[in-house]
Amino acid sequence: MGAGNSSAKLLFIVNPGSGNQEINYSEAIGLHFKTASQKIEIFELPKNCSLEKIKDVILQSKADRVIAVGGDGTLKLVAECLQGQDIPIGMIPAGSANGMAKELGIPLELEAALEVASKGKPRKIHAIKVNGELCIHLADIGFNAYIIKRFDHLPQRGMLGYAKAAWQALWSHHKMEVEIEIKGQQICTEAAMVVIANATSYGTGVKINPKGDLSDDLFEVILVKKYTVLEILKVKFTELPFNPEKIELFHTKDLRIKTRHKVHFQVDGEYQGKVNLVEAKILPAAITIIIPE
Question: Which long-range contacts (CB under 8 A, 24 or more apart) does 79-84 make?
Fold first, then answer.
């Protein structure tokens, strides 16, 4: 059932609010499978759709594969519904952040991504539970989470929008005092940002975590200590190696961070508000993702 079986049933969960509005994904998917032997069903996410509703749609559809059509946020929703089950999840990258699709080599071009979703092979990957939220890509506290909060209200997205938000944020975001418990050791330090990384790269394509591996039983913690615009933009937009005085990397299965003051927090590109405690632990083989053959 896992492999691209010609009579398999595919359920597409489409986030109509994702990414560029130029493509009508439901129409395009319908056309693509018009002559195919596979049965398809399309469910367009209504605003503020509950997990219960999506779980119900998945159950009723009796689908062999469930495909998230949207960005990292949509994929996270579908993954939350199917966590711990063997139903493979496919991805059609249609969001403003498609970090996970890039991570797993899923084509950004629609027709090619549909081919992978219907014919690709399932692979189990781990996820991270961060403060009760499922994280499949990256979570962080501090600078980047603050930008995401600001970025949501910015008219222009993409590089320029990000650089502008980063520049504004640098002047108004304060350093955090953090206490990190990791593998029995305690680190007390100032930090601009702490990243909990399941994946290797941000959606912009920047390798924040070159050592990441989605099939091992560890996740990475990246501690960005020094606050230089350059270091943060370097992390975000280039392949340059880190300066260890400014950035430290740890591998772990669990983690606890306490901060002196409340700090901005985001999971998979969704701003979660302010917290002063973050607890994270690995969830081995949590979800099954469809990747190219």
Answer: 79/127, 79/134, 79/136, 79/286, 79/287, 80/51, 80/134, 81/51, 81/54, 81/55, 82/58, 82/287, 82/288, 83/127, 83/134, 83/283, 83/286, 83/287, 84/286
* pTM for this entry: 0.83
Helix axes 229-237, 158-172, angle to 10 degrees: 150
The structure tokens listed for 73 are: 């946020």
Domains, the chain, with CATH or none: 9-119 (3.40.50.10330), 133-282 (2.60.200.40)
Which letter does DSSP use for residue 30 in this model?
H
DSSP 120: -
Residues 6+ apart with CB under 8 A from 248: 222, 223, 225
**225 conformational bin, left if phi > 0, alpha if psi -120 to 50, beta if neither:** alpha
Which positions ≥6 away from 109 have C-beta within 8 Å?
A: none
Q: Report whether 279 contacts 255 (CB < 8 A).
A: yes
Q: What is the pLDDT of residues 33-87, one digit of tens each?
A: 998 889 999 999 998 889 999 999 999 999 999 999 998 889 999 999 999 899 9
In angstroms, the Cα distances linking 266 to 138, 189, 193, 217 are 8, 21, 11, 22
Query: What's at 47, amino acid-wise?
Result: K
The amino acid at 12: F
The radius of gyration computed from the CA coordinates of the chain, to the nearest angstrom, equals 19
Per-residue pLDDT tens over the stretch 95-125 = 877 888 888 899 999 999 999 999 999 999 9
